[in-house]
Amino acid sequence: EMASVQSLTGVVTRFWDEYSVKTPQRLQLIDCYLAYIVLTGVIQFLYCCLVGTFPFNSFLSGFISCIGSFVLAVCLRVQSNPANKDQFKGITSQRAFGDFIFAHCVLHLVAMNFLG
Amino acid sequence: EEESSATNGGGDSSQKAAQWSLGSLVDGSKSLLIFVVLSLAWFLGFSSRLFSVLRFESIIHEFDPWFNYRATAQLTEHGFYHFLNWFDDTAWYPLGRIVGGTVYPGLMVTSGLIHHVLNSLNITIHIRDVCVFLAPIFSGLTAIATYLLTTEVWNRGAGLLAACFMAIVPGYISRSVAGSYDNEGIAIFALMCTYWLWVKSVKTGSVFWAVACSLSYFYMVSAWGGYVFIINLIPLHVFFLLIMGRFSNRVYVVYTTFFILGLILSMQIPFVGFQPLRTSEHMAAIGVFLLLQAIAFLTFIRSYLPLAIFKRLFLLLAVGAAAVVFLGVVLLTYLGYVAPWSGRFYSLYDTNYAKIHIPIISSVAEHQPTTWLAFFRDLHVLVIAFPAGVWLCFRKLSDECVFVLIYAVTASYFSGVMVRLILTLTPIVCVMAAIAMSSVLEKQLGSKVLELDSIYTPTSTSDAYNILSEDKIGKASSGKAGRRSKGKGKEAETESTQKEEKEVAAPSEKRQVKRAHFAFRYGVVALVCVFLGMFAVHCTWTTSYMYSGPSVILESSNSDGSRRILDDFREGYYWLRQNTHPQARIMSWWDYGYQIAGFANRTTLVDNNTWNNSHIAMVGKAMSSNESAAYDIMRSLDVDYVLVIFGGQIGYSGDDINKFLWMVRIAEGEHPKEIREPDYFADGQFRVDSGGSKTLLNCLMYKLCY
Fold this sequence. Notes:
Radius of gyration of chain A: 18 Å
Structural class of chain A: mainly alpha
Oligomer: heterodimer
Number of strands of chain B: 7
Low-confidence stretches of chain A: none
Number of strands of chain A: 0
Strand order of the largest sheet of chain B: 6-5-7
Mean pLDDT of chain B: 84
Largest interface: A-B, 40 and 29 residues
Shape of chain A: flat
Structural class of chain B: mainly alpha
Helix content of chain A: over 70%
Number of helices of chain B: 34
Order of helices and strands of chain A: HHHH
Largest sheet of chain B: 3 strands, parallel
Shape of chain B: globular
Radius of gyration of chain B: 30 Å
Strand content of chain B: under 5%
Distance between the termini of chain B: 83 Å
């Protein structure tokens, strides 16, 4: 039992060390943004559980905009990662960021409409 | 300028300039050719749908389009917000119908927008003309969308063929003639557009194309209930790619973006509402989304922890994640949080379900099983070339080929269940048949000029003779061009240049080989052209004879052969319009509800929306009971007039006596004690003469007709 807990913490520490060394700073910035989005989503979900789902469209609008922002940020991270350059031919990191902005415009316009 | 530099010989730089300008001349003529062919396809598609307008007049056909026309008229008269909040109290008396929340607004908004734009440019076109001609115009756009999809999957030659097929194929014309103002007219365009954008996204992996795909999906959701097909086919495609081991970051980026934006966009349509989160038809999309997140997360962790044990565990964890997602969905359905498959879609799987439980669905003529005759009539020679195209796609098997293969298989299955679903099969049959025929033509014609997609690569011995060498084309294009790996492509190039040098070394040998195959090659090409010619003739004939009747106007011929127009429908409806009180209530079978509302502008009891089965059963009971019982029912419903269609005088087979048994069955479903179907048969036969059963001879429908 102790051994498995120790190995688990060992794995996590090893992961953290590798992560902070290997990952470029740009991607770590996106990861912080991702953690923030997850936090926002969790708060919204807990609030919905406490208060109830009455204006369901409002809850959905907020929650889906959280999930959407998370997904789009992950896409930006994947496309900006220099290790993935050969998978995304013709998509520079500037183009990835431009697409990110465009997708966010559409997402937030629709979320605004859905808030009710 | 270009010609003079092309005829200059000698010198490497001028040769390069010659190659470049010859290449750009070829490129320019390529785009001109594509433009001309697509415009011709659009014009042809538009004009072949105009038979009924030329023979009769510019009128809305059939039943459903009359409701769509009425709704569009409301939109143009009173504005968008009034239309969105419209409560129609003249339909389904005394219940009324919440039109804003029970209609797919895409069709009305499209026509309303076109009408508004044209009128603001002072082209004063009536809304009826916009509605009548909307479907033919969109058929041209559908042909262009099919061209784009086939170009992404195969090459531009196949794309042009597919566009031409799509423009005139009867399977699509049947629902998009001029006057057939129905959802499918714009929905098939939205379908092909969404699929093209999806294939483009999967190929490029760009978020921009995924967003465009989700916007096109939004248009599709606003246009037709068949959007369920898209939201199940695309996750199925992603799932198959995962099973084939082709998970890549491109698929992840594109599907997650499309899913999340498509989800929130689809919920903007009031009719769809919260269904994407609550019904089984949409669970596949959510399931695949969660599965993709799990697999992407596992891949991410794996890249940081190169543990040998973890690599083995990866597959187990991925399968475990899939199982968890699936069981979660099943659990939610069992607990009631997720609605089970609705009757309309479940009957596609269990074909006996509708006949037993929901007789209304099985009584519609379009929902009957498909016969072989229907396939041949709607698709002709394309259905023969379809398996060949499928096999060619199997050979290539890139990501986009997997998609069209899944589309082909599912569409083939569903089109066998219901006649009306031949419409969803038609586009993929056009694509596959175009791929097959284009490959045959490429192989046999073998001319470089017709190889529309390959880049003109200059070689050391380039001259006009080598442009026409067929062996280089046969080897380098059809088989190898589709292969993803770069290594094989380079192999093919070196192989072909070696071959070319050998060819130049023995030109007399080459010429002999060419002459020997001449008859065979051009024989095959001539045969294909004969097939295509027969196809075009068949399409025009089918369109003219079978799909161009407005069904509100009937045509027959006199004994001397001259045309005789039977305008009874319109005469009857206009009698109602001119001779009855504006608040009069008309009882008829649900087939005619929309037409009564459109032509006569009167309140009806039941109409083609068929959303309330017990109300229809009440009307059916009134029609099947004897006169005194029927009178009581009609008084309780405040009915003023009864409308029946009788065709016995001229042999018109679509009248109410023909549909009478369905009225009995539907009434029996709700009132089994009062109405029993066997009562209407005499000795097991349905007879309408004096030998018929007493119950039949005394019922209201019989008394009104005979």
